[in-house]
Amino acid sequence: MLKNRQVYFSIYDSEQDVLNLKTDSGLLKTLHPFDVVATAPSTQYDFVSRYFWPANGGDEDFVTGSIHTGLAPYWAQQFARNTLSAYQASSRGGHMQCDVGDDAVTLTGRAVRYMQGTIYL
Description:
The protein is an alpha+beta fold.
């Protein structure tokens, strides 16, 4: 199992294993402050994932860009290429293209705007 500052990465061999996961939120809370992302290679995309964050106040996130900035470099290394197609297989789900650069990961996909505003620093 891999880990970064935010999450444990659980790597599966089978996309179906990720899709079939049943979680125990109470048990996942004991991992605080870390969350868990499950991922596997995919038949339709390069990789799939599911992101669980009960340790930090939620359950399963729909589509999580920050997690894909960690997943994309891992899968880029596995596939020996820097442009990847990803799908987060939550109840709503979402597809992203991940481009891994030397010092950044760029994610693109479709989004629904839910808020607009200005932040002053």
